[in-house]
Amino acid sequence: MNGGQDLGGTHGHGPVEPEANEPVFHAEWEKRAFALTLAMTAPGGWNIDMGRFARENRPPGEYLSMTYYQIWLAALEHMAKEGGLVSDDEIEAGHSLQPPKPVRRILLPGDVAKVLYRGGPTERDTNTKPIFGVGDRVRAKNINPLTHTRLPRYVRGHVGTIERVIGCHVFPDSNAHGGGENPQWLYTVRFDGPELWGADSDATIKVSVDAWEPYLSPAT
Amino acid sequence: MQLRTRALETILIEKGYIEPAAIDELIETYETKIGPRNGAQAVAKAWVDPKFRQWLFEDGTSAIGSLGFGGRSGNHLVALENTSSVHNMVVCTLCSCYPWAVLGLPPLWYKSAPYRSRTVADPRSVLRDFGMELPKDTEIRVWDSTAELRYLVVPMRPTGTEGWSEDKLAELVTRDSMIGTGQPKQPKDLG
User: pLDDT averaged over chain B?
Assistant: First the structure.
């Protein structure tokens, strides 16, 4: 979606402000919001693409004024409610009021290290061949889905070069919305700075994105 | 936020969807166990061991996996080589994708609008925010982490470190130098 999260190339956000000796978490509640989000993917049956969409799916003004973990918590509440795991009145009461929804699995303490080490690899086997090869010139399509996509606005319509054929990977645009993994060929596409930002911009800059085949068409 | 988070956690525990000990372990893992020391180890090894260096650039996931690191946000790792003519920077404009397995959780600035908006458009001004200036003919390669590939910048080895052990070299490798917003420490900085 063309939401507040699609920030590449936007202006007015001010200087980058690194914090000296920054702690991993700035408050106790942030630690809980982080860990609850990770732990709930098992009972929720959610995938990372659904989680990303839940975080970005809000009015841009909200997205830009909420803190990072405020967004995580809001998204977790939303997904838990949508999934029928908790209800609005329970959240208001701060207690469970109805019996739990049966879930297939939960994250057990003894499994945390193993689950983290396994992670979430997204490469899948395929019988298909990639359409593009290294060195091919491609144009990022001008798509504007209301749903989840990982093609940022600042590259859409622009011509770049295939730098790498990565492999066949889970396609977020499907996976985020119950369309299944629908794996597609994934490429690293390199764009010259002036192509993206104008002929007068810094020619020493090159920007690459990792783009799935459905995002690209051959550039003539 | 404290009350709101605690309320949700209470409900989820009461429902049996989560176990408190699992929550505690997740927090402890990312507060204390997984962090930039992992990436620094890989960089230091690449500085001393040419075969590992080649492996790291050809297959980052396997090379870093051989050190025991990997998994969540580290299943698909790509190492990027800084040279005297090319400087690499990593960003996730759309959210906060970051190589947790080798760097731990990202700093707040990485996840915030200034960095996410400006790095792809004007990386030199971002480097200036970090007190860093590169020669104007240095090529700056910005990598927007839009898929599950996670990028690790391998900075250049500081001079005056001949004969140093991997452990000592790893102390020079800063977190920011592995994102591309800083350079490694110099020998004199170790004091």
Answer: 97
Give the burial string for B33-46 (b: 16+ CB within 10 Å, else e): ebbbbbbbbbbbbb
**Domain B35-190 classification at class level:** alpha beta
Q: Where are the domains of chain A?
A: 28-118, 137-218
Query: A138 - beta bridge partners?
Result: A160, A218
CB atoms within 10 A of CB B157: 19
Helix then strand count (H, E) for chain A reads 8, 5
Give domain A28-118's CATH superfamily: Nitrile hydratase, beta subunit (1.10.472.20)
Instruction: State ipTM.
Output: 0.98
Counting as low any pLDDT under 70, the low residues of chain B are 191
Q: B5 to chain A: which residues are within 8 Å by CB? A: 29, 32-33, 36, 73
Residue A31 is given by DSSP the state: H
**Both structure tokens of A220:** 């003539």
CB contact set of B128 (below 8 Å; sequence gap of 6+)? none
What is the structure's pLDDT at A220?
73
Give CA torsion, residues B140, B180, B90, B53, to 10 deg: 90
- CB-based burial, A9-45: b 16+ in 10 Å, e otherwise: bbeeeeebebeeeeebbeeebbbbbbbbbbbbbbbbe
What would the mean pLDDT of A166-174 be, rounded to a whole number? 98
Put simply, whether B190 touches A (Cβ < 8 Å) is no
B95 is catalytic: yes
Give the helix/strand (H/E) hosting B33: none
Domain A137-218 in CATH 2.30.30.50? The answer is yes
